[in-house]
Structures are given as structure tokens and as C-alpha cells.
Amino acid sequence: MSVFDEERARNYDAGARTVMAGYEGLHEMARDGLAAYLEPDRPARVLLLGVGTGYEAEHLQQRFPAWQLIGVDPSEPMLNLARRRLTGVELRLGVLDDFADLVELDGVLSVGVLHHLPTREEQPLWIRSIGQRLRPGGVALVGCQVGPYEVDSARLHALRGRWRHSGQGPQEIEEKTRLFLTHTLPPSRDQLDEWYRAAGLSIPETLFSTAYFQLLAAWKP
């Protein structure tokens, strides 16, 4: 079951901008990254894995009208918002492995999904599934948290400062910190490189990075 209920879906876009420094730059680089691999004016099938409220799909549609965009998300409230925002984008409720027909894709863009998977064991399988869906020469852009988090690290202190600046109180910050250290469990960069290699993808290149988040680009040979 998706953790994005109606209230969280409604507040997602504003909350993401508040909590994550560089939010707009991240998405701008995602668009530039896709255009670096796929020809902007030629047809391409691009999957938005975790399409959310449709924010990124709307910008992609405006910039690359020749592309066929497909959005997948497990949250019905998120998809409802996307449906109000978008026309001409195929939207599907579910997760990637629900759709056997999503193959021979030219591109996959997924931002902020990997760390929402229920278990660490599912993370490399998710990367592998993306690799299986791409055509040779296709590109995968994945934005994800990269760990590990350490109690006294500057990265975690910067993140706590960001939460404080956004108006969150001490108790909420402490609870979030506890969850980041015990439940979020983002993969290390070495783990990600190994997972990409096992999925038949190139070693990913970092296109955008903050203290705790990276946008990675890889292609399928």
C-alpha cells in the first residue's frame, strides 16, 4: 500500500521544495539529462516511474512534445492530481512489475522512489527491473538518497538544519533523524554501482548532487 494518502499527496510538491534544497535544479538537470541521451525532436517512449502529481511530466511534455510519456505510481491520490494536471500522458496505477508490456523503453526517469521501497532487498531488484525494461541504448535517470547516514556527519547535520529552517519543531526533527538512521537505509554509492552493473547497465554518472541526494544517469549497452 502506498504511503501517499490524500493529505500527503496534496502537500507533496510544496513540501518537497521546502525540505530539499535544489529541488528545481534537480528536475531541470533530469530534463537536460534525458535530452543528452534521447533526441528531443524524435519519438521516444519514456517511463516516469513514480509520476506523482505530474509535475515533472508536465514540464517534459512541454519541452519534448514528440515523446510518448507513460506515468506509473502506486498512489491513487497522487495519480488523481496528475490526471487533473495532464492530458496526453498515459497514467497507470501500480508498480513497475505490474506491467509486463512496459519493455523496449527509450528512457526511464524515477526521482525519489528507491528509498520508499519497503525493504533493502527490494532495491537491487528494482534497479534490475529498470534495466530489463530498457532497449539497448536506452537511458535510466534515477534520483535517490545515497548513504549511509552517520550520527555526527555534516550531511545529517545539514539535513536537520534544513528541517529546522522549514519550520519543523525539535521533537519532529528528532523523530525524523531516528528514522533516517534506522529505517531509511539508503544504499551507498558502491552498492548502487554494483547493482547497476548486475542489472546490465553502465556505471552511473552523477548529474546532480546535494548533501544526501544524487541524480544518476546510466545507459544500457
Shape: globular
The biggest sheet amounts to:
7 strands, mixed
Bin the strand percentage.
15-25%
Strand order of the largest sheet: 3-2-1-4-5-7-6
Order of helices and strands: HHEHEHEEHEHHHEE
Radius of gyration: 17 Å
Structural category is: alpha/beta
CATH architecture of the largest domain: 3-Layer(aba) Sandwich
* Share of helix, binned: 40-55%
Uncertain stretches of 5 or more adjacent residues: none
Number of strands: 7
For the record, the count of structural domains works out to: 2
- Tally the helices: what do you get? 8
Mean pLDDT: 89
CATH superfamily of the largest domain: Vaccinia Virus protein VP39
Distance between the termini: 34 Å
CATH class of the largest domain: Alpha Beta
Structure, described:
The chain is α/β, with parallel strands linked by helices. It folds into two domains: 6-148 and 185-219, 3-Layer(aba) Sandwich (Rossmann fold); 150-184, no CATH class. It has eight helices and seven strands; from the N terminus they run ααβαβαββαβαααββ. The chain has helices at 6-19, 23-37, 55-63, 76-85, 122-133, 154-165, 170-184, 189-198, and strands at residues 45-49, 68-73, 90-93, 105-111, 134-145, 205-209, 213-219. Strands 3-2-1-4-5-7-6 form a seven-stranded mixed beta sheet. The chain is globular, with a radius of gyration of 17 Å. The termini are far apart. The model has no long low-confidence stretch (mean pLDDT 89).
Task: List key phrases describing it.
single chain; 221 residues; Rossmann fold; 2 domains; seven-stranded mixed sheet; 44% helix; globular
